[in-house]
Specification:
This protein is α+β, with helices and mostly antiparallel strands. Helices cover 31% and strands 22% of the residues. The longest helix has 32 residues, at 59-90. It starts with 5 loop residues before the first strand and ends in a 25-residue tail after the last helix.
């Protein structure tokens, strides 16, 4: 870095920081040079704080974010399947395929147990 050159690194992500980009400029008032990111609009690059889509992963944060969002998606799918099974059972339908079974012990459509 030469004297008068500014270098900034910005990290973003939620709930844990997972993506990073860097930008620098030669002197006050000059255009930013973006590293590890894509500027989203040229008009913002000339201002004090560019809007950039970060591309460099911060692996620890990326893994933690994927685990948190993956667990949330899994819980939503689990809730949905349990709710669907309860509704089908209350309407005397097969839990697996939804076919009407009334008092039968085995579904005539798919062969699943009614219990």
């Amino acid at each position: 870095m030469a004297f008068g050159e500014y270098y900034y690194e910005h990290a973003s992500g939620w709930p844990v920081v997972c993506l990073v980009f860097a930008y620098h400029k030669k002197e006050e008032g000059s255009v930013f040079v973006v590293e590890d990111g894509i500027p989203t609009s040229l008009s913002r690059v000339i201002t004090n704080h560019p809007r950039v889509l970060p591309l460099r992963p911060y692996w620890y944060g990326l893994v933690v974010d994927m685990a948190i969002f993956g667990a949330g998606a899994w819980l939503v799918l689990l809730w949905y399947s349990v709710r669907r099974a309860k509704k089908r059972k209350a309407k005397q339908r097969c839990v697996a395929c939804g076919y009407t079974i009334n008092k039968l012990e085995v579904c005539p459509e798919c062969g699943a147990s009614a219990n």
